[in-house]
Amino acid sequence: MRVILPLLLAAGPALADCPPPPDHSVALSDLYDRMQAAPDPATAQPLNDRAWELYTDAPDEAAQAVLTRGMRMRESWDLLGARQAFDRLIDYCPDWAEGWNQRAFVHYLNQDFTAALDDLNTALERSPRHLGALSGKALTLTALGREAEAQEVLRAALALNPWLPERSLLKGEEL
């Protein structure tokens, strides 16, 4: 079943229930503390990379396989295939923030900013301190011309990691 279930998920609707997402909140809080204390971007980057490893740690092997497949498709600019993979992932694991975050990224790349924002809001309901979803939401709000809201969300992301590349978009104050 371990080999068959990922193939079934990639081909069609899920046949089993997704387990709860892993709880990495303690490890992420520690990483955020360390990012905030980092003296420079080079020190913060490996911590940010580790946070991404935790965000993309799927609830089970089947979800991990679909996530990996969708991310590879997105990286090769097969945005339709990637969106379909993330649709399946969300259908299978609706409580896992990363499925919503990844589909939002595909919507953003397709310049469907309203759909991206909807998915980012859902991701943030599930994981309010998800750096990728926060920075993605700031970029999406900017693309929608909602600059004041974008700045507020960007500040929330930078409160967790002041060294995000998006910090260059902050207006009106220094960190």
Please provide a written account of the structure.
By secondary structure, this protein is mostly helical. It has one domain: Tetratricopeptide repeat domain (Serine Threonine Protein Phosphatase 5, Tetratricopeptide repeat). 68% of the residues lie in helices and 0% in strands. Helix 2 packs antiparallel against helix 3, helix 4 packs antiparallel against helix 5 (79-92) and helix 8 packs antiparallel against helix 9. It is globular, with a radius of gyration of 16 Å.
CATH architecture: Alpha Horseshoe
Question: What is the CATH topology?
Answer: Serine Threonine Protein Phosphatase 5, Tetratricopeptide repeat
Oligomeric assembly:
single chain
Please tell me the overall pLDDT: 91
> Quick one: how many beta strands?
0
Low-confidence stretches: 1-15
The fourth-level CATH homologous superfamily is: Tetratricopeptide repeat domain
Q: Would you list the SSEs in sequence order as H and E?
A: HHHHHHHHH
Q: Rough shape?
A: globular
Alpha-carbon distance between the two ends = 51 Å
Strand residue percentage: under 5%
**H/I helix tally:** 9
Question: If you compute it from the alpha carbons, what radius of gyration comes out, rounded to the nearest whole angstrom?
Answer: 16 Å
The secondary structure category is: mainly alpha
- In percent, how helical is the residue content? 55-70%
**How many individual domains?**
1
Please identify the top-level CATH class: Mainly Alpha
Major pleated sheet: none
